Amino acid sequence: MLLHLPKFQHLLHHPDIHLCIIDQIKIIQTQLDTFDNWSLIEDRLNSLQYLCISKETSDVVVQCYKQVFKRDIWTYADLLCVISVKLSEQQLDDVIEFFMGIIDKGEYVHYRCAESIAKIALKLNERQLNKVFKCLMNAFESGKITICKECAHALATISSQLGGKQLDNAFQCLIHRFPLYFYNDDFQTDLIQFLMKLKEEQLGDVFKFLIDGLSDEKENDGVRKKVAELIGKISMKWNEKQLIDAFNSLIDIFNAIDDSYDAFNAVREAIAEITVKLPGRQFDNAFNYLISRLNSRNNAYYLFIRLHKDWMKNK
């Protein structure tokens, strides 16, 4: 059944067939509370995503998904995210209201709701994005919910789409309430996009935050490695002063850090990425400094090869 439904979408809009579909969805809805076989229930729920062909059918499908929420939030949330592209503005409002209304109902539910909000955010309009952003920020401020990596991701995703003051507020919130977001592997691509949208003055705060984290010898090697990698990736957004400051800070750390750590190699890569972005005279000064000051011949050789490759690539 699932294999053939997508092929016949054009037929499902016929008035007579449309009425039959609504009746069939309602029959499935009544069966959901009587079925004991979860595989059978899941099969019915999966088939419903192909029957969201109108506001009327989508309304009943959403009701069906809500009906099984307490039995399996994972399936319910996944299916709602799948059909979100087919929902009307009002239906999306209802879905958002539902998720925001239960986001504080235990850690398991909280995690799933935050993850779903981040996915659905890509389908929302500006009014809806502002509404969700305000709800999340108020919930964090009031202590109604404790920010987690999924919440942080949702906040970053929403504020990236909104920009302006919301982007700045989200950045400050993440820096002070959940700095671990900047070290998380799960959302690196989205994090880079988020940071790239920050203004120059905000990037100064990012720079200080990252350098402080990298300089902290009490921080574990894995975190320092992630920080160094992030510094290199976002260096294309920094102005000349920030690049010079980053280079000087990284050199200090490079000379002090044990070369057996993973962070050592990441710092070396970041130095190479930043050096090649320095303007003419500053690049010459940095290059000459590296020649005269790097202690290990192997490290110097590696760094020079790396710089040469980047320089040739950017010529």
Automatic annotation (TrEMBL):
InterPro entries: ARM-like, ARM-type_fold. It comes from the Eukaryota. This is Uncharacterized protein. It comes from Reticulomyxa filosa.
